[in-house]
Amino acid sequence: MANRRLITKAVLYLILILLAFMMVLPLIWMFLSSFKTGSEIFAQPPVWIPETFQWKNYLNAFNLAPFGIYLANSLITATAITVIQIMLSSMIAYGLTQLEFKGKAFLFQSMLLTYMLPAAVTYVPSYVILAKLGLLDSLTGIVVSNISSVFSIFLLRQSFLKVPKEIVEAARSEGANDWQILWKVMCPMSLSTIFTLAMITFVEMYNNYLWPSLIVKSQSKYLITVGLNQFFTTQGTFQNQWAMIMAVNVISVAPLLLLFFIFQKWFIKGVGDSGLKG
Amino acid sequence: MRHRMQGFGSFALFIGVPVIPLIVFWFIPMFVSLWLSFTDWDYISPEIHYVQLDNYVTVLKSPDFLGALWNTFFFAFWTTVPTLIIGFLLALLLRVQIKGRPLFKALIFSPWVTPMVAMSIVWSWIYEPKIGLLNQFLGWLQLPQPEWLQSSTFAMWAVIIVTVWKSVGWCMIFYCDALGKISDEFIDVCKLEGATIWQCIRKLYLPLVSPITLFLAVTLIISAMQAYDQIQVMTQGGPAGSTRTLLYLYYQMAFQQFNMGQATAVAIILVIITAVISLIQFRLSKYWVHY
């Protein structure tokens, strides 16, 4: 009996290791390939570990395009969007849960409607609006057009609804106004939701491609995703370019993977029980 | 009076201010899109003519649209169903108490964190017909080696594989959480009654996780309708339009041909389809979702 359980466990381990390996294989392959020489890239059968690590692939890539700037642009816009979006969403969520006003149900229903719709529908008019505001081809334009998210509002609203009424009333009787209640009571009590939301928003905004690629035209404003695809299409896929392209990929993926593996415990738990499923 | 003023001040602050970007970049564009879909605007000319339903008629009759419509359904179905099934099975495997479970979860989830653009580039290389990792592996197994991205029959599958690969981890996390909430007593009873594993899964696990399945199915389909990055990087809708979805068609019409009228008509049709599918899912959920 004990033997059988041991075997089942071993088989399970084997399956899991195999599956996990398959899932990260493209990432490993990318990483290893970024250090290869042209001939190693084209070797048949494939070479796994490069003989000598070609660090110059990274240098060459940086010399061909300003990936440092792209990376900075992405990190700055994603951070700005995350912070502003969460602040604005908390304010609306507070209004929806704590204030009484006319048209509250209407507002909530209109938001519910937008939640279901593909964002792409808004692209043509949003593009024109950004043009009218003079914000095309600017990082501000990317930030401004992304700071409102119905998803964030819903998530925060749900979390705020769980804050006990007594606590809010106690704060109010001690003379706290709405502004103080929001930042000193509601938000601290919804910290895990805010954290999860921040992680998801940051990842999504860092990875965002279609919309930024439409509104940004000059190279100095490229986000990493835009610069990456630009590099991929212009460099073509000949010869040892692949190794350099993989190097660039590693650079673009590294910040998020690093962030994820530092916070993975909270992140995975947070996504699981954040009430995302409504 | 003072109280009312305070009430209004709070309203202006908490709703009035943050609702501005929501109105400017969501509500207004939505109505403007609807309006544009009845016009012949080409982005450049100042004149806009009202063309009634012409855009919709032209679009609905065009073979490009019908092809894209079929591709969209095909893509949505074949990404959503496998993602759900694989995500669920992974979560079942991870139910067993073993060491290193968080690590397995993190590794399987990690593709979700990466940019689709970067991963699509990596995968286009894996799909390379001669020296790509996938075909070298298939050749080693003596299996046929299709020209993935260059073949109009396989390109769509190539895009689907990447999409599923990137989202199963997300699905798994939700199923892990849902399965974790099922008490062990249930499972013991199920085993005591002499049911097979398959019967336990069907009679016990599946009904208990059905609310999550509904949630995931709706969100996965909505995001499948909006898939763009992987198509743009790997195939640009080709070869021969075989991977052109409605969203990609919309992008080409709007931002390559500047045919804003027809493009927004496509967008509105996409919205209607998304809304109808979500509605059908919620309606049908009465029969198979158990709360």
TrEMBL record, chain A:
TM spans (from-to): 12-32, 67-94, 106-129, 135-156, 181-203, 242-263
Residue stretches making up the ABC transmembrane type-1 domain: 71-263
Subcellular location: Cell membrane
A Pfam entry, by short name: BPD_transp_1
Topology term for the membrane: Multi-pass membrane protein
Keyword vocabulary terms for this entry: Cell membrane, Membrane, Transmembrane, Transmembrane helix, Transport
Predominant location: membrane
UniProt keyword Transcription regulation, yes or no: no
Family listed: Belongs to the binding-protein-dependent transport system permease family.
Stated name of the protein: Carbohydrate ABC transporter permease
Species this chain originates from: Sporolactobacillus shoreicorticis
The organism's taxonomic lineage, starting at the top: Bacteria, Bacillati, Bacillota, Bacilli, Bacillales
TrEMBL record, chain B:
InterPro entries: ABC_transporter_permease, MetI-like, MetI-like_sf
Source taxon at top rank: Bacteria
Intracellular or extracellular location(s): Cell membrane
Residue ranges crossing the lipid bilayer per the database entry: 12-36, 73-94, 106-126, 154-176, 204-225, 263-282
Major location category of this protein: membrane
Keywords for the protein's UniProt record, in alphabetical order: Cell membrane, Membrane, Transmembrane, Transmembrane helix, Transport
Membrane topology reported for the UniProt record: Multi-pass membrane protein
Ranges where the ABC transmembrane type-1 domain occurs: 69-281
Family of this protein: Belongs to the binding-protein-dependent transport system permease family.
The name this protein goes by in its record: Carbohydrate ABC transporter permease
Species the sequence originates in: Sporolactobacillus shoreicorticis
